[in-house]
Each structure stands twice: as C-alpha cells, then as structure tokens.
Amino acid sequence: MDELDKTQLQLLKNAFDAFDHEKKGIISTDMIGTILEMLGHELDEATLKEIVDEVDQDGSGELEFAEFCQLAAKFLTEEEEDDEAMIKELKEAFRLYDKEGNGYITTDVLKEIFRELDNTITADDLDNMIEEIDSDGSGTVDFDEFLEVMTGE
Ligand SMILES: [Ca+2]
Ligand SMILES: [Ca+2]
C-alpha cells in the first residue's frame, strides 16, 4: 500500500476529528458509508461491509485513526489509478481523432466532436470554447490542451 504524505495525513486527521464527535479517538464503522459517500463513492451494502471488515482489522466495530488511514489510502490510491486509466482512455480517444497521427487535432475537428456530444450548442458557444481550449491560438489542439478540456485541469 502506498504511504500517505504529510499533507494527506493532516487532512485525514481533520476529517477523522470531525467524525469523532466524542473525541474518543475512534469512529464507528456505521459512519464509513456516510464518509465514503461524501468522498463521492457510493457503495452497496455488501461492498461496504467487505471494506469495513477489511479495514477494521481488530474487529472492534470502530475505526481507530490508523485503520481510518488505511481506508483512506485505499481510496486515495485507487483514485490515482482511475486517473491513469482515464488518461489512457483519453489518449486513445485523441488518437482516434488525430487520424493522421500529427499529434494534434484541428479546432475544426474538435468543433465537430462537441457538436456530436451536444447538438444544441451554438456556433458562438463553440467559438468561445475553442478559443479557451486552444490557449496558444495555433488553430490546433495538442494532447495537453485536449486533456485540459476533458479533465478540467
Ligand atoms: Ca478497529
Ligand atoms: Ca494549440
């Protein structure tokens, strides 16, 4: 398992304290579902139980901070993998549009893609979007620019 860095640990400590209402140094495993939901992971009961059983290593029905960190590490590292998978997928999508393998797609092609995704989009909106995406104004969108659009980063 990947180690969490200091910043992550501090964030986790804050989150842990927030859920540890009675300041006992433990949070009930009943809270795990809620916490994960807040983090954007909605899990069905069976999956949730599996995860709780896995992290609550001493079977106390409560999570000590160390166990809580394990839970977090599980999700934080999984998210990283998701990112990698997403970038790979986007790369494939990009290659699909970059038919000639130039390493870029023209803004005309990108306009077509956006129209396919949303046929209510106006020409003005499209122009504005393209202007924002093609940040160096080259008339082409390279993978970095494409990635920025898709990930919003
Ligand atoms: Ca425990
Ligand atoms: Ca460009």
From TrEMBL:
Boundaries of every EF-hand domain copy: 7-42, 43-78, 85-120, 121-153
Entry keyword set: Calcium, Metal-binding, Muscle protein, Repeat
SUPFAM superfamilies per the UniProt record, alphabetical: EF-hand
Transmembrane intervals: none
Any single GO CC term annotated in Swiss-Prot or TrEMBL for this entry: organelle
Record has Mitochondrion as a keyword: no
GO molecular function, one term: metal ion binding
Keyword Metal-binding: yes
Family: Belongs to the troponin C family.
Record protein name field: EF-hand domain-containing protein
Source organism (scientific name): Loxostege sticticalis (Beet webworm moth)
